[in-house]
Amino acid sequence: MASKHENGTVLVRQEQKLKPPAMYQVILLNDDYTPMEFVVAIIQEYFNKDRETAMQIMLKVHREGKGMCGVFPKDIASTKVELVLTHARKAGHPLQCVMEEV
């Protein structure tokens, strides 16, 4: 949209093309030590999944080596990774949690 300025120049307003913020998936990685029940509890607590969904994600982690728990903006994904890692370490488990850009 152009508007005439007082001195006769025409100003063209460029519409900024805003890219949506990058999204990140939060992924749990399999290990041979963290109990399956602990993983299910983590998924329920930090990713708001019902028990059945949490079980499915845990089994995917167990069988395929990793499982995606959700997709979030960068700051939320980063916070969730930190919360999971802190909880796991306090409980004495080596569970790994990472984030990857979608």
The helix content is 40-55%
Mean pLDDT: 91
Number of helices: 3
Category by helix and strand content: alpha+beta
Radius of gyration based on Cα positions = 22 Å
Number of strands: 5
Q: What are the low-pLDDT stretches, counting only 5+ consecutive residues below 50?
A: none
Structure description:
The protein has 102 residues and is α+β, with helices and mostly antiparallel strands. The protein is 42% helix and 26% strand. 21% of the residues are buried. The longest helix is centred in the C-terminal third of the chain and has 17 residues, at 74-90. Helix 1 (36-47) crosses helix 2 (51-64). The two termini are 35 Å apart. A three-stranded antiparallel beta sheet has the order 4-3-5. A two-stranded antiparallel ribbon has the order 1-2. The protein has three helices and five strands, in the order E-E-E-H-H-E-H-E.
What would the keywords be for this entry?
102 residues; alpha+beta; 3-stranded antiparallel sheet; two-stranded antiparallel sheet; 26% strand; elongated
